[in-house]
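Morning!

As promised:
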Amino acid sequence: MKLGENIHNVFHLLLQNKVRSFLTMLGIIIGIMGVIVIISAGQGAQSLIVNQLKSQGTGLISVFPGSGDDEGPPVSVMGIVITTLTNDDVQAVKNSGRVPHLIAATGYVRGTETVIWQGRKTDTTFIGVSADLPEVEDTGVETGVFFSEEDERGLQKVAVIGSEVKSNLFGDQEAIGESLKIGSHSFRVIGVMRERGVSGFTSQDNQIYVPITTAQKLLLGINYVSFARFKVESDQYVDQVMADLDIVLAERHQIAPGQAKDFDIRSQKDALDVLLTITDAIRFFLAAIAALALVVGGIGIMNIMLVAVEERIREIGLRKAVGAKNRHILEQFLIETIFITFVAGVIGIILGILISWFVAVVAQTLGYDWAFSLSPFAIILSVAISSLIGLIFGIIPARRASRLNPITALHYE
Amino acid sequence: MGEVIKVMGLKKSFDNDGVVTDVLNGLDFSIQQGEFVAIMGPSGSGKSTLMHILGFLDKPTVGKYFFAGQDVSNYQDDELAEMRSQQVGFIFQAFNLLPRTTVLDNVMLPLLYSSLPKEKRLAQAQAAIESVGLTARINNLSNQLSGGEKQRVAIARALVNNPAVIFADEPTGNLDSRSGLQIMRILQDLNLHHQHTIILVTHEKYTAEHAERIIHMRDGLIESDRPVTDRQLAHNGQELKK
C-alpha cells in the first residue's frame, strides 16, 4: 500500500469523524501553540527590556556597591542594602581628573512618598540624582529647567517632575513655580521632564527627580547611594573608563590590589548580557513547560488511537483476511497517528503565530517597545516534537493492531 | 482440471491456558479446481476452523496442506497473508464491509495490498462490481445498501483479485430467503460459468444443496463426503446441468 493512499485514507477518516478528530488534536494544538507563543512573546518581552536598557544611551557604566561575580546580577539588585558607595565617591571620581573621557556621573537613591499639591495626592517615586542626570540618561526637561550643581550642593528643595506626575497633580495647569509636598517637605517645581515611556514595569514618567543631597538628608536620612552611573564620551572608551574607575574607587576605599572589592563596575554590555542570560533562562523554562503540554497531548492521542484500534478490530480482521500483512496494518495506524499530530502541529503553528502577532500588536498599541519576532527554532522544534510524539505514541496502538489474530478480529463483536 | 486443495492427516488443537481442545482430528480429502463444495455440520464440528485453515487464516497443528500442489503447511504469517492476497477470496456471514466507505473502495480493498498499478485495480474492481450487478451503486456508501446488496459487494470484493478459491462462510445467514437465493444464484453462476472453485460453509441443508458435493463434519472428523444427487439450482428456477 502506498503512502499517498494511506494519507488519503486517513484524511477521509478524519473528515468522517470531525468532532473526535478535533478533540484528539486539541492537546497537540494547544501544546504547539503554547511553545510558539511563549517563545515569541518571550522574545518580545526580552526585546522590550533590552531596548529599554539600550534607550538609556550607549557608553554607560554602572557601579554597584558590594562585590559581585561576573556571571550573576549585582548583589545589590537582590534587595540587599549595602552602604559602602556614597555620593562623595561619585563626585570625587568625576572631579578627580583621573578618568579621562568621563563626561557625566550621577548617584541614585530612591524612595516612595505621597506627593500633595493643593489637596491633590498621588503616590509616586522620588529619585535623588545629580544635575548630570539628563546627560547620563539621554533625556531632558520639556519645560522649565533641571536642577543645577549649586542646587545640589545647597540641598535645595527643588523638584523636576515626570510628565505623568504633572498631569496627575496639575492637569492642564502650570506646574512650574508651584510648591508641592513630598512627605512633609515642601519642594518647588522647577521643571517637567519629557515623556519617556515605560521601563521594565514602571513608568518613567511617574517619577520626581530631586537633588541627591536633598533626597539623602531630608527625605531618606541616609548617606549612601543605591548605585551610580557614569557616562563615557563614546563606546570605544568604555573599557578604559572602567579600568580607571576601578583604580580610583579602590584607592578611595583603601583596597589593596588582590583584595576583595566592595564595589562592582559593570558596563551596559555586561548588564545586557546578564539580562539576556536571565531572560533566556526564563524563556526556555516556560517553553519546557509548554512542551510538557505536548507530551500530555501525545498521551491523549495514544489513548484515542487505542480506542480506535478497539473500534476497528473487525476492520483490521477484514484487512488481514484480504491479504494485509502485519506491517501494512502497523503502517496504517502509525501513519494515521503521525498524520493527526502533523495536522494538529500545523494548526497549532498557525494559531501560535496569530496569537503571538496579536500579543505584539496589543503591546505595541499600549506603547511598549515590543518587537514581533518568530523563532524558526521554535517552529522547527514544535514540528519535530509533534511528529516525534505521533511516532512514539502511535507505536503502541499500531503494534497492538498489527498483532491481532485475523480470525478473532473478524468475529469480534 | 487439477487438484487445488489436498489435505492429509490434518489436525488442529487450541491451547487455552493449558487446556487443549482438539477441534480437527485428522482429515483427508481433496478438492478439484472448479468444484463447488459445501462443508456442513453442527456448531462445534470444526467446519469453521477447517475453512480458516484452508483459507490461510490459520495454521494446522499436525498434517499436510497442499494448495495447487504446493506444501503450505508451515507457512508463516507473511506468507499466509500473501496467499490470502493472491489465491483466495472470502465472503462472511456479517458481510464485513468497511462502514461509511463507497462500494468501489470496499471492493478495491484487497487490491491495496497487491502490487497492481492504480488503473488496473480500478478496472478490476469495476469489473467485479459489474459481475454482481451493482454498477449503478458503485459510489454509494456501504451503509446505504440493503443486506442482499451488501453481500453482493462482499462477493465482488472476494472476486476482485481473481482468486483460485472463494470461501463463503454462511453467506446467506444474515439474509432473508429471497436475498439469500440471489446470493446462491450468483455463487452458482460464478461456479458454472466462470469456473471458480467455491467452498461454502453452512449448517443449512437447503443452502448446502446448491453445491455439487457436501462434506459432512462431526466432532472434527468427516462424517460423510458425497456428491449432491438432487442439486438445488437458484438460476431463474431453471434446471441447469453442468
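Chain B touches chain A at residues 52, 55, 57-58, 77-78, 81-82, 84-86, 89-90, 92, 96, 98, 100, 109-110, 112-114, 157, 161 (CB under 8 Å).

Hope this helps with the figure draft.
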